[in-house]
Design goal:
CATH architecture: Beta Barrel
Number of domains: 1
Shape: globular
Structural class: mainly beta
Strand content: 35-45%
Distance between the termini: 18 Å
Helix content: 10-25%
Radius of gyration: 14 Å
Largest sheet: 5 strands, antiparallel
CATH superfamily: Nucleic acid-binding proteins
């Protein structure tokens, strides 16, 4: 069990995917994403193993939910700056997203 104070430390925000590239150097098939979290946070990069369920063109301009306050993580030659969140469906990941368009940077709580 965690406390409410522990939960409040996790900064989850809504952002819009603005760029998607293949990530051939990744150990498992993945994309390199750029996600716009608005003026306060800006654009952050993320690696996402979502190539099975999503084509690159489907991801552009899609809003997603991500954790933005983890320390950057080196993934091969790429530095991931946020964790795009999803739900495991077997070995695939289904992205979490708001069901209506909201402002980039909106805080999840």
């Amino acid at each position: 069990m965690i406390t409410w104070q522990d939960f409040e430390k996790v900064d989850m925000r809504v952002g819009t995917i603005t760029e998607v590239e293949d990530f051939p150097e990744a150990r498992n098939p993945a994309y390199k994403l750029k996600v716009d979290f608005g003026d306060e946070i800006g654009i952050k990069r993320s690696s996402a193993q979502i190539t099975t369920l999503y084509k690159k063109e489907e991801l552009l301009n899609r809003q997603v939910i991500a954790v933005v306050n983890f320390p950057p993580k080196q993934i091969g030659p790429f530095m991931s700056e946020c964790l795009v969140m999803g739900v495991y469906q077997g070995s695939d990941v289904v992205l979490l997203q708001p069901d209506k368009a909201v402002e980039n940077g909106a805080k999840i709580g």
